[in-house]
Write a structure and sequence with these properties.
The protein has a single domain (about 15-80), classed as Immunoglobulin-like. About 0% of the residues lie in helices and about 25% in strands. Strands 1-2-3-4-5 form a five-stranded mixed beta sheet, with no helix packed on it. By secondary structure, it is an all-beta fold.
Length: about 90
């Protein structure tokens, strides 16, 4: 496979995603109506709001290595009704 076999896909007007805050090795993101707090080993700065004050529907715990995806932990009242976490994969 060569570089010419790949196509760069860009989502300029994707309104369902928003980076809300980041720092202290974490990201707070919004996917549709779901807020996700997940690890990001490259976010080594201080967040605008302390991580412990972030309000998230799903929290991915930190892992010793960042090569394995951690399962998200949803609060039951905010679990999405569609997607792999709802058993519709």
């Amino acid at each position: 496979m060569s570089a010419s076999d790949f196509q760069l896909l860009v989502s300029d007007d994707w309104s369902d995603y928003q980076l809300l805050d980041s720092g202290d090795l974490r990201k707070l993101e919004r996917f549709g109506k779901v807020r996700v707090n997940r690890p990001d080993p490259q976010a080594f700065w201080r967040p605008k709001t302390p991580v412990e004050n972030w309000k998230a529907d799903a929290v991915f715990p930190p892992r010793p290595t960042m090569t394995i995806a951690a399962p998200g932990l949803f609060r039951a009242s905010n679990r999405p009704r569609t997607g792999p976490s709802a058993g519709t994969a």
